[in-house]
Write a structure and sequence with these properties.
heterotrimer, A mainly alpha (about 290), B mainly alpha (about 270), C mainly alpha (about 625), B: about 270 residues, mainly alpha, Cytochrome Bc1 Complex, Chain D, domain 2, two-stranded antiparallel sheet, flat, C: mainly alpha, two-stranded antiparallel ribbon, about 75% helix, globular
Chain lengths: ~290, ~270, ~625
Amino acid sequence: MKITSLSLGALGALVVYIALRLSKGFALASIADVYILFMIAALLIYIPAGDKGKKGSLLVLGTLIFFILLELVRPLIPRSLLNVYNFFILVTVLLYFTSKDEGARDLMAPIKATLVGSENRTFRTALFAVVPLFAALITFNIVRPSYEAPGDTRSIHPAPPSSVNVFNKSYNLLTLKNPLRDDAANYAKYVKEGGEVYFKNCFYCHGDKLDGKGHYYHGVNPKPLPFMGTDTIAQLSESFVFWRVATGGPGLPKEGAPWLSAMPIWEHFLTEEEVWKVSMFIYDYSGNKPRTF
Amino acid sequence: MQTFLKISIFAVIALLGYTLFANVGIPQVRPAPPPAEEETIGAMSMDQYIVLGKKIFEGKGTCTLCHNPVLGGRAPNLVNMHNTSEERLKDPRYKGKAKTGEEYLRESMMNPSAYVVAGFGKAWTNDTESPMPQISGPAVGLKPAEINAVIAHLQTKDGGKATVPLPTGADAAPAPAAAEAAAPPAPAKTAEEALGKYACGACHKIGAFAGAVGPDLTKIGAKRDESYLRRAILDPNADIAQGFPAGVMPQDFGNKMTAKELEMLVKFLKAQKG
Amino acid sequence: MGSFLKRRFIKRQAVVTAFIFTLLLFVPILSHLIASAPDTINASAAFAAEKKEAVESPAAKKEEKSKVEYPPAPKLKEKDYPRIKSMNSRISVWILAQIHLFFAAFVLAVPIFVLVIEGVGKATGDERYDHMAHEFIKVSMTAFSLTATSGGILVFMLIAFYPDFMKYLASVFGSVMIIYAMLFLAESIFLYIYYYGWDNMRYGFRKWVHLTLGLMLNVSGMTIMVLGNSLATFMMAPSGVDASGVFTGHVWEAIRGPLWNALNLHRFIANIAYGGSVVGAYAAYKFLSAKSKEERAHYDWMGYTANIIAISALLPLPFAGYWLTAEIYAYSQTMGITLMGGAFAWLFITQAVLIGALFLSANYYLWCGMERIKGSERYTKYVKYIAAVIVICFLVWFTPHSLIKTPIEEKAIGTHHSLLGPLGLMPAKNSAVNIMILFTFLSFTLYKRSSKITTAAWAKSGVAAEIAIFAVGIVNIIALGIYSYMVTSNIKVGMSVPQVFTTLSIIIAISIIESRMFKNAKSTGDIEWGKMPARSQYALLLLAVSFTWLMGLMGYVRSAIRQHWHVNSIMRDSSPDAFTPTIGYAANVVSISTILFMLLVIFVFWLAQFAAKKQEA
């Protein structure tokens, strides 16, 4: 038996992939999926085949490179989506490798050799032991009771209503602007006052660095929104922020269901002016500008 | 025969895969059941009627599918409709028959093309044809009483006054154009006058009055702030003083008072510190 | 068809392509003409009536009174629907209608390309085309009677389960229904003469008669299809009736609904793709069970031709679908949002998986096909890049707008996914599907080139120009896609038009350069028909299975966006089955229909074989 560098690479890639999966903090059982089973079985067949198994190792390596790249994407891709992504990547790689007769033969020959050949007895035994065991692990993983709540499809960024009734007034959210922004002379003052409001009320969840990691960060789900970066409040008009602050989690429309958000209804605790000031503060601190279109 | 079996198994596996994906791979959203067909609207107060109108506007009427600024402005945003509806009647492009703002609003739902807001017409019609469906038509299927509720909501949501007739509960023939509502009484000039006009003293001990049905208000300013007082007038059941039953105080002051009167009263009450 | 693609037949290629495109244009243009004709007739009639009225108004008024009065749409209660024990009315009608449509699409599509292939055979004088066309039509003969039978059962079921609805429909479409039935008779007559007269009218002037008969067969078939479509579009977007369902009396207004032409085009193209894929599956089966080398070569060639037909129709299909969706939005935004954003949003994710399977298997078949061509080694190295681009585009296309996250993932990801969020929107998907189409076209171009070596002096600059066109086009598509994110939603939607335009221009430009460049090309040797791996035939089978299932699913959603209406907004469905089911439920019904259909198709294929064998004494 001759171990080629290609098969070593494939083995290494599998180790990296499994390590990546484990590093996401999930139980050992949750790495039990058909893709890893497929890879293990493929390696048990192609590594012992030496030079004849080159194509097979290349297939495993190529597929795993795609898989690993997808695992490295941040923010991470939900597993439900990754399963489909992986499926189509695997299928396409398989199709590519079998599109030529030579490739198909190279892939098939080691399989036949392992299953019926006389040389690879040990590996045949290993294959016949590992595959059912791993399949059992997959089954166990599916049926095992879990405390994890089922996933949901709630819309995080729901469409706001056209107008909202808060502070005993009706606001048209399309045209609503922050009235304090017109007063450019007092901008610094408003931001400072907004900062005071923020640190008296908001920072417990949204964090002292506005990164969404306040004291209660670990306790709430959905997580508090971070304001830093360009993809949260920077994508919102200030009227949207006003609406979300004033009506809080309970003010979410139907698409936002289930209403798990712990955001309080701030119109009960803050004045209208304080809401505008705190909005100015978070935009100023995070270096963002409200969206205007 | 072997080929045939292989092919059949292959086809069945492919089909099973698709079926499995459609059943397990995607969330099974259960669409809402067909809406109930007959809904009559019983007698109610104007307040409840306006609330119903808002509900219909956002729900059954499906208005917010398009009249929603956030979805990219498929249709005009409906603000200040109590004023806008009157202005439209004077617009030279207006083609309808309405005489009052209320009639205009009703017409805009029954015959949306009577006035098309510039830029919102069907493509290539130069704003002469509206893409909006007829609201009483079966696409949305609002009953006349429901349309009136929506009108009431549109008129009041930005501070106007509802002029539609209240539903009678019979909900039979289309409601006739609203009878011209009686002219509202002149607004009060001072807080004391307002107290008399809205008969606050009949129940409360306040100013020159010594009612005993509701809570004593002579020291209220020391305990409560303006926003509490304002809400207590507009929505009396939001917070009930200890020892008094809920639902006794009229709930329609929000519709009867002018903003000025309300603010005068709030200020007056805030000043009552014993 | 392989030799047909050779340089010598460049003119014929152009003629055939032009002919296919004319056929594509034929249906909508004709329907527009027919649809507008009654307008002028109506208008002149109205004008005449006006004149008449001016002269003798009392008489005219009398005439008014004797006019037929049409009933409004009935308002049904649950008890108005007959119950038949142990049968669910909705599922029975659903399955039957689906099977009928599968067969109908097949028997309408086959004569279209049979006629084209026969024409090609006549033009080139190559007997093989004629044989293949004959075999195609033989396959569709038994399917034809099954179409009629399933249609008959469907009508009886509709009358038994939904009598009031059928009564109302007949009050509007009575005349259309009768013409429809008559046309069916005409179509059968043409089909029988066309099929049984094949050998009799084989050569010379008689062949022209035969071709004309084929054309008449197609004309009657197309007319049947557009008339049938008018009933379907009337139920979705009624026209020619007032708000309470009272018929205006002008049947053309009822036929020419707002969605009619879009549906006609979409079904026309989809039928061809579907018919091609089913014939391809037949060829695949025959190939796999073939005993002799000649047989294998013949069915390989047949499968190849069928696959080319299916792919050429598949490429413009997304655009036709886009037009239909745009018309649905224009007719009713509520309906459009229900379709794309409401309960059916996840259905389009399922559709994405199916389309992915279609594109992958079609490409795979082409890649495998390069094996049988000497000289293809020059191009196989590009296959991996094509595969990578197609799978990446497909993954973008598949990415849903709202992700399914477990609570743990929700915590880790947060509320908004900065990468997948934008990919879930329309601009990314439009760009991806355009690029996917272009790369499939690239596969096809490389395949065609495989057997040729250009002799043109300007070949180098020609290839450079092709690469430049391709690259610039792709950059343009991506740039337009990115730009769409920066503009408001109403402009965003319009952005897909220049993208589609870019794709079409690239395809046309490169096809022209290719045909010029390989005009006097050297051949690398004949294509070795029959030298095809068995697994490639499974790609053809998957194409047919996926097409059938996808057709069932998309037919369901087209019909289901009416929700609880028999005739949208005019006649309410008050039966207990008026609810909109989940997608899983619908998928199960579609799978059952598909399996039943496949069993019947197997019967048809078996019959074709059975009839060919003679009993030995």
